[in-house]
Write a structure and sequence with these properties.
heterodimer, A: alpha/beta, Rossmann fold, 2 domains, 6-stranded mixed sheet, 4-stranded antiparallel sheet, 10 strands, globular, B: two-stranded antiparallel sheet, two-stranded antiparallel sheet, 74% helix
Chain lengths: 256, 349
């Protein structure tokens, strides 16, 4: 029984085959990386998994059930969270509220309970407090406490990346899709981020799918790697295997 | 460091004792208002209160969810006609007729919200604009709704109390307004409001974190239509007479202007915007009776423009205010308020 499995998915935009028969399997508790040159379809793959794009054929199996074709919010409810390559935070909310959105699926307050929130004994208020406490734990893990009441729009890039990661973690995901978590960071920040990702795996037991351009990072932390080019898979395997695979080298460095 | 904190404080309505104090002062003022001012100003207050309800509701849609509507006069019309017809034709008491017709307006809001899932920006505003125009046309053509002649409201009875004068109506209207504002505040500072803001700020991210965008967009439309319906039902009893021409396109634009001038995405701002624009709307109509300025404007208008220029001066002024707000303070009056607050916090530096 596989934990998470992608079976031959393809998608094309007009004449461009963005993904062509991609297939891989992810085991529980591993870091699975996806690499490839720019425009090779890595983010498209993530968009397919999180339901933003609907692949034309194939299957995406999560715990043996097909999640392909479901709406993004339903996929999120199953426990698949993601971050974005270009930060997609809610700039006019503070850090706490941004992370609280991650708790959205666990909360039950609808408009009526929200409308009649009278005092701290009411259902809505209790629920808010309860989930804020949960979010606080994540803030502690990611070291975000000092930004709790700051609007995220004005925070530094590295912090925003961490908040986005925190928002995904607040969902208590089973699978976390990280789209270039280290992009645009200094080497110190990168190191911090690597430790964080490893912490997440160990402490929270989250399976991680990772897209990253920094080969050092990828080779360091991945259990297995999928290399793709022009939407087609090249090779899946351990870092050393992928690193020395001639097709991968060709895709990155070009042919002589 | 002890990081333990009371999370209810974060979402508390009143953050400090000072706020509670000023709120108490405001309530006291509102209670004393009918005794302090003469009849016309009570009518003005009623009118303002109604516009506050609309602006608060519209702000949930425009300010928090980031959708636009140029057809809220349509929902206003539905609320007004629904309430009056239920009372006149079906003899349903006011306190049941008003929520019923507001729910009906809310239902229409939901229906209008459905195309909003696919439309954005200018396309959505055109779609809602068409709705606003259609409603008044339909209502004006049907004899059941009184056609072009309009409808008179029946007597307003609550239990055995006969609500007759503006002053009586004020006593009914202000509590309703306060409750509506309270509900709006509550909605936007909990889970539902957060989902709205999330949709406005980054729709894709909201979707992938588990917010049902379809549901919340239509919900925002329904809530704001419900608010507008409530205001419409009350408005009928301020005027005691309704006709289709009242719910013109200008009205929708006025509503939107209140939200924009007050400050997008702030309940406080919507209230301020509603007060300012309603006052201007009512007061600028009397501009011709101002001793020298009135004469001057009249001659100006007669010489260079048409005679309608002066009597519609409020729209010209609104236009200027909106343009200035857009240019210099996109957050509206709320933005100005924040700046003043910041200034005094750091004063004298």
């Amino acid at each position: 029984m596989s934990f998470f499995k992608v079976e031959n998915i393809s998608i094309s935009f007009g004449g461009v085959k963005a993904l062509n028969e991609i297939a891989f399997e992810v085991n529980k508790g591993e870091i699975f990386s996806i690499i490839g040159p720019n425009g090779s379809g890595k983010t498209t793959l993530f968009n397919c998994i999180s339901g933003i794009y609907k692949p034309t054929n194939g299957k995406i199996l999560f715990n043996e059930s097909n999640i392909m074709g479901k709406n993004p919010h339903n996929i999120a409810k199953l426990g698949i969270a993601r971050t974005f390559q270009n930060i997609e935070l809610f700039p006019y909310m503070n850090t706490m509220e941004n992370l609280m959105i991650g708790r959205h699926i666990y909360m039950k307050t609808g408009i009526f309970r929200a409308a009649f929130m009278l005092g701290r004994k009411s259902f809505a208020a209790k629920e808010e407090s309860f989930h804020r406490e949960k979010v606080e734990e994540i803030m502690e893990l990611l070291d975000l406490q000092s930004f709790r009441n700051r609007f995220v729009g004005g925070l530094p890039y590295g912090v925003q990346k961490r908040i986005e990661l925190g928002r995904a973690l607040a969902l208590e995901p089973k699978i976390l899709l990280l789209d270039e978590p280290c992009a645009g960071m200094t080497s110190d920040e990168k190191e911090d981020m690597i430790f964080l990702v490893q912490d997440i795996l160990e402490i929270l037991g989250v399976t991680i799918l990772l897209i990253e351009h920094d080969m050092k990072v990828v080779m360091d932390i991945s259990n297995r790697i999928l290399a793709i080019n022009f939407g087609s898979p090249i090779v899946i395997g351990k870092p050393q295997v992928v690193q020395n695979h001639p097709e991968v080298l060709k895709a990155y460095l070009g042919e002589e | 460091m002890n990081m333990k904190r009371d999370y209810y404080e974060d979402i508390n309505l009143f953050h400090s004792k000072t706020v509670i104090f000023w709120f108490a002062v405001l309530i006291l003022f509102l209670v004393l208002y009918p005794f302090l001012f003469k009849n016309y100003y009570i009518y003005v207050a009623n009118y303002i209160a109604i516009n506050i309800i609309v602006a608060t509701g519209l702000n949930i849609l425009v300010g928090y969810t980031g959708l636009i509507s140029l057809g809220h006069a349509g929902f206003f019309c539905l609320g007004a006609y629904g309430t009056v017809i239920l009372m006149v034709k079906a003899h349903i008491p006011f306190l049941i007729a008003l929520p019923l017709s507001s729910l009906f307006a809310g239902l229409f809001g939901f229906l209008i919200g459905l195309p909003a899932l696919r439309l954005e920006g200018p396309y959505l505003s055109i779609a809602t604009l068409a709705f606003g125009l259609t409603i008044t046309q339909v209502v004006g053509k049907l004899d059941f709704f009184g056609g072009r002649e309009g409808l008179h409201t029946s007597k307003l009875l609550i239990g055995n109390l006969h609500i007759d004068s503006d002053r009586d109506f004020y006593c009914l209207l202000i509590p309703i307004t306060i409750i509506m504002i309270f509900i709006a505040r509550n909605i936007v500072r909990t889970r539902v409001g957060r989902a709205f803001i999330a949709i406005r700020d980054a729709e894709i991210a909201a979707e992938t974190i588990g917010v049902n965008v379809m549901l919340y967009k239509t919900l925002a439309f329904a809530i704001s239509a419900f608010y507008t319906g409530v205001a419409g039902g009350l408005y009928a009893f301020v005027l005691r007479f309704i006709e289709p021409q009242l719910f013109s396109q200008m009205m929708s634009i006025m509503f939107l202007a209140m939200v924009v001038v007050g400050g997008i995405g702030s309940t406080f701002g919507s209230i301020a915007g509603a007060i300012l624009l309603t006052l201007l709307d009512l007061e600028l109509r009397n501009i011709l009776s101002i001793p020298y300025l009135g004469k001057f404007l009249e001659s100006l208008s007669k010489n260079f423009f048409s005679i309608t220029g002066v009597s519609n001066i409020q729209f010209i002024v609104f236009g200027f205010i909106i343009i200035f707000i857009m240019l210099f303070e996109p957050l509206g009056m709320f933005g100005i308020w924040i700046r003043i607050k910041k200034y005094w916090k750091t004063w004298p530096f």
